[in-house]
Design a protein that fits this description.
Layout: H1 8-16, H2 19-25, E1 31-35, E2 42-49, E3 56-62, E4 65-66, E5 70-74, H3 78-93, E6 101-105, E7 110-114, E8 120-121, H4 122-127, H5 135-149, H6 157-166, H7 170-179, H8 199-205, H9 208-223, E9 227-229, E10 238-240, E11 245-247, E12 254-256, H10 259-282, H11 288-319, H12 331-362, H13 368-371, H14 376-396, H15 403-414
Antiparallel strand pairs: 1-2, 2-3, 3-7, 4-5, 6-7, 8-10, 9-12, 10-11
Helix pairs in contact: 5-11, 8-14, 9-12, 10-11, 10-12, 10-14, 11-15, 12-14, 14-15
This protein binds 5-S-methyl-5-thio-alpha-D-ribofuranose and magnesium ion (MG).
Length: 418
């Protein structure tokens, strides 16, 4: 069948032709099909049985253009294949944190997957001031499992090189190269500035030293094929309930630097942290408890990831005849290499976090917790803080040793005034 963007009616016909999905859904004549895509790129349908509650799934279909902008921004549909492959690979590594794939159809650029019907988007929960007791534990496990097993530390050199080639994702990487690393650091038409944000605050992240740092991070993103990344790991790509955490939407997956996924996630936890000064106060609540929890998550995501990644690495080396460093069992050298490696990942993550903070403040596709603040002056105050945090992370990234220093910096930025 040639590709067609599905409507609820044509999707029902499509489902009739896929026996595996019929088995999951039961009576195909009694389905509710609702388009719920509020993302930037795709069609997303919830399909559920009216007669047998609990039988449901999600259908995600790539459109041949960027939904956020419309047909004036054409895109190939390769991203659906990249997403299906990444979901399968990441799901095999940590099925408890990745939605199950029931069916993938490359010709239709379509994926049928587990419906997380009791879960909400993490960004939304954080804006409501909700906290999740297992969040950092789950996300650090996801990060360590996915980022370690895609790398040369685990795969043979040949398998890894083939994996790099198979994961090429040119168009979606270009979106990131432009929207995270380039446009926000210059006066570019894709940016939109809050009129109440002082020009001096914008000028600080357009100064040559910051642009140099952003260019260095862009170079790393484009050239350091270290592992298979999710590629867009913000808090809108995570679904949660009080007990579970799932990472969704890896359509930007490609081989890039390990610190990228970590840095994007940390940046989005930090926008959640800084924006509580509006959201909690609006709700008549004290922001302090949820802010303390969010900074605790920043620390626990990094520390948990670093510990688990290092443990996976050490266990793999111990169980193998040879390690990345060779076959000599020289523990001291291996430990030194691991420490230096994790320090580099940390510095990279902070640089990527800085870029993401600038982008989510000034660039295209801002974050709801900031862009949704209706009072321009109140929004500008949060924006000044995110931009100063970004600047300090970008310029000082190689000087940080511990995540506690990043927490101190975030607390300091939170006290800045307009
Ligand atoms: C133009 S697409 C904008 C953004 O949506 C995705 O979630 C990515 O973050 C991308 O940069
Ligand atoms: Mg997405």
């Amino acid at each position: 069948m040639t590709y067609q963007a599905l409507t609820p009616e044509t999707l029902a016909d499509y489902l009739r032709g896929v026996p595996a999905l019929q088995t999951l859904l039961g009576d195909l004549d009694a389905l509710d099909i609702v388009e719920v895509g509020d993302g930037n790129l795709n069609l997303v349908y919830f399909v559920s049985s009216r007669s047998q509650p609990g039988r449901s799934l999600v259908i995600k279909q790539a459109l041949p253009y960027l939904r956020l902008v419309g047909e004036g921004w054409p895109l190939t549909r390769h991203r659906a294949d990249r997403e299906a492959n990444a979901l399968l690979q990441f799901g095999a590594l940590c099925p408890q944190h990745v939605p199950a794939v029931f069916h993938a159809d490359s010709a239709q650029s379509l994926i049928a997957m587990q419906h997380l019907r009791d879960h909400i988007i993490l960004r939304k929960g954080l804006m409501e001031g909700l906290t999740y007791p297992n969040l950092a534990e789950h996300l650090s496990t996801y990060l360590a499992q996915t980022l370690f097993h895609g790398s040369d530390l685990y795969l043979s050199a040949a398998a890894k090189k083939q994996a790099v080639a198979a994961a090429t994702n040119t168009e979606l990487c270009k979106i990131t190269e432009d929207l995270i690393f380039t446009d926000p650091f210059e006066d570019n038409p894709t940016n939109a500035y809050n009129p109440a944000l002082p020009r001096a605050a914008i000028a600080r992240v357009h100064q040559p030293e910051v642009r140099l740092a952003a260019a260095q991070m862009k170079w790393a993103f484009m050239n350091r094929a270290e592992t298979l990344l999710h590629g867009d790991l913000h808090t809108g790509s995570v679904m949660v309930n009080p007990t579970d955490t799932y990472v969704i939407d890896p359509e930007f997956a490609y081989y890039g630097p390990i610190g990228f996924d970590v840095g994007l996630l940390l940046a989005n936890l930090l926008t959640a942290y800084l924006s509580q000064d509006w959201h909690r106060v609006q709700a008549g609540q004290d922001p302090a408890p949820v802010q303390a929890w969010l900074l605790g998550q920043v620390a626990a995501v990094w520390d948990g990831f670093a510990d688990k990644f290092t443990a996976l690495w050490a266990a793999h080396d111990a169980a193998s005849a040879t390690s990345f460093m060779g076959s000599a069992r020289d523990e001291a050298s291996q430990r030194l290499f691991r420490e230096a490696f994790m320090q580099q990942v940390f510095h990279d993550a902070l640089g990527f976090a800085g870029c993401e903070l600038v982008r989510r403040t000034l660039g295209l596709a801002k974050v709801a917790e900031i862009a949704g603040i209706p009072d321009e002056a109140a929004r500008a105050l949060i924006e000044v803080r995110t931009l100063r945090l970004a600047e300090a992370l970008l310029l000082g990234r190689d000087d940080f040793q511990f995540i506690s220093e990043v927490i101190d910096l975030a607390q300091e930025c939170r006290t800045l005034t307009l």
